[in-house]
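Reagents: none. Just compute today. CsbD-like.
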Amino acid sequence: MGFVDKAKNAAEDAIGKAKEVVGDVTDNKDLEAEGKKDQGSAGAKKIGENVKDTFK
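Predicted 3D structure written out:
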């Protein structure tokens, strides 16, 4: 994957972490869960990128 895709995934992970922290601080469990979901999605995409890079 290209640099742009990797940057988008890093941004998605950072946004997910921020949502998780804000949800924790404000006791908003839905926002906290959404942040964890975003981080998981970004992590899965990163694994996919690494697999593709390995087989290039």
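The longest helix spans residues 29-54.
Action item: order primers for follow-up constructs.
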